[in-house]
Amino acid sequence: MVFIVKKTINGKDYYYLNENKREGDKVKTKTIAYLGKNKKEAEKKFKEILKMKKENVIEEKSSLEKIKLSIEEMNIFCKKKGFVYQSGEIYGGFAGFWDFGHLGVELKNNLKNSWWKFHVFQRKDLVGLDGSIITHPKIWKASGHIDSFNDLFVVCKKCKKSNKIDKNELGKVKCECGGNYDEKTAKEFKLMFKTIVGENEESFLRPETAQLIFTNFKAVYDNARMKLPFGIAQIGKSFRNEIAPRDFLFRCREFEQMEIEYFIKPGESCPYEIPDEEILVYSSELQEKNKEPIKMNIKDALKKGVIKKDWHAYWLATEFLWFKKLGANTENFRIRQHRKDELAHYSSDCWDLEYHFPFGWKELEGIADRGNYDLNQHEIFSKKDLKIFDEETKTKILPEVVCEPSLGVERTFLVFMFDAYYYDEKRKNFVLKLHPKLSPVKAAILPLVKRNDFEKIAKNILNDLNEEWNIFYDNSGSIGRRYSRNDEIGTPYCITIDEDSSNKNEITIRDRDTTKQIKIKINELKNIFRKLINKEIEFSDAGKII
Ligand code: GAP
User: Fold this and answer.
1) Ligand 1, atom 25, residue with closest C-alpha
2) How far is the CA of 24 from the centre of ligand 1 (A)?
């Protein structure tokens, strides 16, 4: 029998679908699905799920594993476990600003490092840059942000909530509650934060990292001795005075971007092999015809002309691959082309890598073709020659940015958290199945009981592994409680010190995802551990299974 239950967490109501099942002579209750925050929404979802169950779309056993937390539940979870806090919470909070806690900062650093290694270290055609946050005001005049980087502030006639929409959406989109926005009170809202430099010089906090790449383009090209095609990558803070910051980390006023500007000789084709990746493809044509996205190999999408440029196909597949390699659930991704009416002022074509968040398909990463718009504008405004000499044609050319993969760190953080969150029926607790490279804590060292010899061995191992990784030492509570504490924060391995460690120099490693255990010699640990973190060996091949 299935039924709806209401749970109240921190004063807010959440609705779930529960099921009673007879197991032997006992009736057990388990949660099958999250249904939403109000009764009406819950009843609607309830009917949809019953329909899917009848059609066997949802398999009995795996149903809970597939369920995502709502964004509010993720917020609560992140706060409780020390990943993310509302900024200035002791003063009532500050909308759109977030602080990363002791685990959040590690996860964030790990994903930024992984992005940097994949895009900069492991490629010969990309170099890095770290530009300033407060920038010369003329940059933003040249880039078009001062004149065009605005949203429309609108108020819903029905529920009176304010929201932001794009200028072209006025009269076309409705509020979440179904009400119409009041067109009379709609007003333009500048998204850049102003600041004062020195006594009275007005400047801006950058709303994207990209412009610093353009203004430094020539210097990087000369000094790093790059040759076209090549890219410049940057990770750093950006600031937007969002009218309606919402959905936890999804829309913030202060956030980080991982951006690449990829420069080519005008018309140059892509010399790289396009990764063999299949994904849901949602072209502007399909959207205009009100059709559903189609699953395609990205190479085929290029061959069939759905994706126009080889460079776009290459970067879309490459970016998707990065997520895939770090264990993201590929079913939650799709690529969507911007319709003509949504293209930014600088872009001739743009595809977004979208993720299926609990509140719908949303932009995760934008990959725009910016052409030579930016270099051209900076040439005009700075009166400096930003062209480079082309050895082949013996002429000066202004390179084009054929693709600008631009990814938000906070949205990426959410993706990995949502995809890692998993409820384990057998263990009766949840497990954060993060890729070991992303896990905030790589291992917990657990002396089985409080004994001087065990603790001495444990501390030695801790000091050794701490040189390279973030390792926790935990000697309080039962071993089962310590395992589940570490499962919940995504620690991939627990290392137990016991009698065998004292007598035979052996330790036990427990795998978070399978709960399997192996025994290995202490002097082999560092080497084996490195391979496990990098997923170079299977856990069951790393030692003697016990
Ligand atoms: N340089 C191009 C650019 O900034 P964008 O689509 O405005 O393009 C790129 O932003 C990415 O930055 C987005 O796909 C998203 O991941 C992230 N982003 C943008 N605004 C954000 C916000 N208010 N909060 C969190 N992330 C944001």
Assistant:
1) 251
2) 53
d(C-alpha 341, C-alpha 13), whole Å: 39
* Cβ neighbours for 527, distance < 8 A, ≥ 6 positions apart: none
- Distance linking the first and last C-alpha atoms of the chain: 40
Q: Are 153 and 169 in contact (CB under 8 A)?
A: no
DSSP codes of every residue in 196-222: EETTTEEEEE-S-SHHHHHHTHHHHHH
| Predicted pLDDT at 15 | 81
- pLDDT digits 0-9 by tens, 97-114: 999 999 999 999 999 999
- Supply the residue whose CA is at minimum distance from atom 20 of ligand 1: 251
Q: What angle, 0 to 180 degrees and rounded to 10, lies between the N-to-C axes of helices 104-116 and 409-420? A: 110
For residues 36-42, give the mean pLDDT: 80
Atom from ligand 1 closest to the CA of residue 352: 14
Q: Which of 411, 413, 416 to mutate to test the pocket of ligand 1 (most atoms within 8 A of CB)?
A: 411
Instruction: Tell me, using a 6 A CB cutoff, whether residue 408 lines ligand 1.
Output: yes
Protein residue whose Cα sits closest to atom 21 of ligand 1: 251
CB 403 within 8 A of CB 316: no
Nearest CA to ligand 1 atom 5: 366
Q: Residue 275 — very low, low, confident or very high, per pLDDT cuts 50/70/90?
A: very high
Q: Specify the ligand 1 atom closest to the Cα of 365.
A: 14
Q: What is the mean pLDDT of residues 270-279?
A: 98
Closest CA to 441 of 514, 502, 529, 377: 529
Predicted confidence at residue 512, as pLDDT, reads 98
Do 281 and 415 touch, CB atoms closer than 8 A? no
Q: For residue 334, give the nearest of 311, 303, 306, 304 by alpha carbon.
A: 306
Residue 14 contacts residue 358 (beta carbons within 8 Å): no
Q: Which atom of ligand 1 is nearest to the CA of 210?
A: 1
Q: In which band, very low, low, confident or very high, does the pLDDT at 62 lie, cut at 50, 70 and 90?
A: very low
